[in-house]
Hints:
The protein contains 5 helices and no strands. By secondary structure, it is mostly helical.
Amino acid sequence: xxxxxxxxxxxxxxxxxxxxxxxxxxxxxxxxxxxxxxxxxxxxxxxxxxxxxxxxxxxxxxxxxxxxxxxxxxxxxxxxxxxxxxxxxxxxxxx
Length: 95
């Protein structure tokens, strides 16, 4: 019996490698926005004002409701927080 292994949980649940990559990018950005909010000690209301979204959206973000956020929405929130967005590509087949 062969045991399948996956690089991340996203690789397991996604239908395609492209979908898994998209999920990883969203999760990574979501975590970074969460960390900015927590590091600054902002209330959800303050974070919402700074991110340009509603307080319930910040609540969903902080609770990790991954499925409620598009990559575009997360980029806009990060930019509203004064962050410069960079994208880095790495060859996953490289050693």
